[in-house]
Amino acid sequence: MSGHRDIHEYLAEFDDIPGTRVYTAARARKGYHLNQFAMSLMKAENRERWKADERAYLDQWPLTEEQKQAVLARDYNRMLDLGGNIYFLSKIFSTDGIPFAEACSTMTDMTFPEYREMMMNGGRSPEGNRSIKGGY
Amino acid sequence: MARITAGVGSSHVPLLGVAVDQGKSGDAYFGPIFAGYEWTRAWEAEQKPDVVVLVYNDHASAFDANIIPTFAIGCGERYKPADEGWGPRPVPDVEGHADLAWHIAQSLILDDFDMTIINEMDVDHGLTVPLSMMFGQPDKWPVKVIPLAVNVVTYPVPSGNRCWALGEAIRRAVASFPDDLNVQVWGTGGMSHQLQGPRAGLLNREWDNRFMDLLVGDSQEARAIPHIEYLRETGSEGIEMVMWLIMRGALGRETRCLHRHYHIPCSNTAIGHLVLEPVE
Question: Around Cβ B76, how many Cβ atoms within 10 Å?
Answer without folding.
Answer: 18
